[in-house]
């Protein structure tokens, strides 16, 4: 028997080991019967600056609430006052996502969280969660410089702003973008939570749980102090927040020696700048079509228009193109570049800067004018600045007369709109203009929101076009932006001292503008973008479907250390300003040894090339396009409470997810517990009784009793 | 469904087993060993039945017949019941052999433990392990905030699972007693009856989620088995009478 037992046990062990090598055949656990996991969640996260925290927070183990769809005023009353099953998880229709409703939710203790349905049906005429006066404390206007113009005293730039993005919510707020998911939630609500004839719905009720617990609290100073303590004293340091950072993209018409710092040349530069980023209420959602893409596309098209002429007839001054990242968060990119220029840590410094032309929001022209904004204070203080600015304006007027663009100046006493140029003015009074499609306040009704998308920019295609046809189709918006780009290119050429006779040769190609617009607001996964990027980046999945999102984010991502938009702009610039070389891939990555190539003056890019069948494959491009770090100087100087520089950080978190399930009534739960306790006590009593009387009960004539009486 | 449901279901499912363990098994180390070995034997039977199930699923892999999962389940349950009873018989044989060895080395004149007591302990061991495997997975999921039902299942899932586990634990105990008694007296119809009843209970559980069809009949069978086990382990109406008269 023992031998057989050994044999059985050995065989069992062998079987067990072989069984373990197979994965689970079909795990149908109870959890799958209970929860419906929602994929693709879009949360609102916590951001901190020197003094405040904004955004949303959930409790550590998620916030649960009974679902209720907010479609009318009576629903609002039900949720906040009369509903019998608090706390509620509010499914908010688009129309109700406003400041008044959200603040009422914030002050109520009966709201466990909010899920906002994101759609264009029911969308109000305007919705901007940004503040009315963007970046008011880090611009150039302050108590010391133009105090009467500071804090939007003269012009409110974003009057439709409701400031929701800058409120602090103690419950999670998620966005429901996927129509199928919203349908699942609605069905669960309709099946279980509807009120019949005014009476309250019966248990079990449909509920939702949102997880978005943020680790950082209070402000950046507190968070960085705690992170520093962790780094110094803990074996496994827990980082609580990260500064928002990424890279600026810059290029120059004549290559600059990247390894040299400070004013090494007596060159004079005209800076052409625009911003690269946007934001919205939710994390990583920022289509930013009118707010950002219009500027990017215009500047890129201007680069494309300028380059052929510049090779033939170079102007006396150099033109420096800059795309600043992080401008929505107190000018992260531009403040860093100016900071480096001031300390002579950048290739050029402020002495080299002749003038500046910035491109703001230029997409919603549609026959209306373009406006040239300038700074009245510096024009008043310095006659040379006044002269130069008037000159610039005169040049642009004359160029615009030749094109189909009506250009004008806003009132003389009006300050500059929020722009990177303000940070340059803070350091030195240089002449400059900001080009925009608004005379006073923004015409963008969805500034820095999720709805600033292709539809807001009036980019529409005729039906039944394939993606490839859409890529090259010249929409009205593309043609309009091409005109602006031509104006910008010619003005830059004139500003750089170029000859008037060459001006008519500078024209932006509407086809390039159409391709840029398609790639940046409709679909980034197109053949043109694919041909511009390196093969290993496309393999890592940087070209997912849909338009790119322009939120700056932070740190390393799955496909590399740089934000995808920054990479797109960098490679497009390389394509527009670079020359093809015949280096191999290894040579392209390390061109140090090759005598004809200069790593200091140029950057080398290994790009895929056309994806057509008869194309030659990847090749190496040499271009004077560089990246420069865009992280606020406050973090370099470790002045986390700085009032001069951006101090924005993003909190870290463990998991962000959402799930839907049914909840049972409290009475049923207590009943279960009661029955359980009763069963336990009863069985204890009965067993004690039976075991004490066991000899009496189970006595038998045959067996020897174990005890005697 | 939260902590209240977790404890409620745990007490329902394991209360009687816990009470039986505390009052009748815990004091005697030999009984504890027999209990644990019994649990192990049940576990072995489960391992073999899971292998049968695994092979069956793999063999029918690729077939998209909608009735296939149900058919596989019935097949699996049938084989599992048979294997459990086979291992109960195997444990009986092992205990008989061990008993002789124990009698040889014990100090007392007689048997250290009677076959009837071994039958009860073995049955309880089977019952506890079977209950644990039925219930632990469900208990862990009952801790979360949600209850079963979003896909249309009944919201009383946890409670009925706990009640079923309670019944099964007790049934295994009674079947142990009756089975060993049948083997001792070579009454093979008793063994056949136990196997048939086990198959019947397993079949009734397949009626779920029609809980009215599965739970009451199972509890009726439990009561009947309790009576049968009582008479089979030496009890009689006289003893009951004696108990009542002694009390008064």
UniProtKB/TrEMBL annotation, chain A:
Q: Where in the cell is it found?
A: Membrane
Q: Which Pfam family name is an example for this entry? A: Ncstrn_small
The record's keywords, sorted A to Z, are: Glycoprotein, Membrane, Notch signaling pathway, Signal, Transmembrane, Transmembrane helix
- Which Gene Ontology terms describe the biological processes this protein takes part in? Notch receptor processing; Notch signaling pathway; protein processing
Any one Gene Ontology cellular component term annotated for this protein: plasma membrane
Topology class, membrane: Single-pass type I membrane protein
Task: Give every Nicastrin small lobe domain span.
Answer: 43-216
Q: Where is the signal peptide?
A: 1-27
Q: Which Gene3D superfamilies match?
A: Zn peptidases
Matches recorded under InterPro entries: Ncstrn_small, Nicastrin
- Span-the-membrane segments of this chain are 670-690
The family line of this record is: Belongs to the nicastrin family.
Name it.
Answer: Nicastrin
Specify the species.
Culter alburnus
UniProtKB/TrEMBL annotation, chain B:
Report keywords, A-Z.
Answer: Membrane, Notch signaling pathway, Transmembrane, Transmembrane helix
Name the major location.
membrane
* The family this protein is said to belong to: Belongs to the APH-1 family.
User: Does the record's keyword annotation contain Transmembrane helix?
Assistant: yes
Pfam assignment, any one: Aph-1
Q: Where are the transmembrane segments?
A: 6-25, 32-56, 68-87, 118-136, 156-180, 187-207, 219-240
Subunit structure and binding partners: Component of the gamma-secretase complex.
Q: What is this protein called?
A: Gamma-secretase subunit APH-1
Q: What does this protein do?
A: Potential subunit of the gamma-secretase complex, an endoprotease complex that catalyzes the intramembrane cleavage of integral proteins such as Notch receptors.
Spell out the GO cellular component terms annotated for this protein, sorted alphabetically and separated by semicolons: gamma-secretase complex
List this protein's GO terms for biological process: Notch signaling pathway; protein processing
Q: Which organism is it from?
A: Culter alburnus (Topmouth culter)
Q: How does it sit in the membrane?
A: Multi-pass membrane protein
Q: Any keyword Aminoacyl-tRNA synthetase?
A: no
InterPro entries linked: Aph-1 (IPR009294)
Q: Where in the cell is it found?
A: Membrane
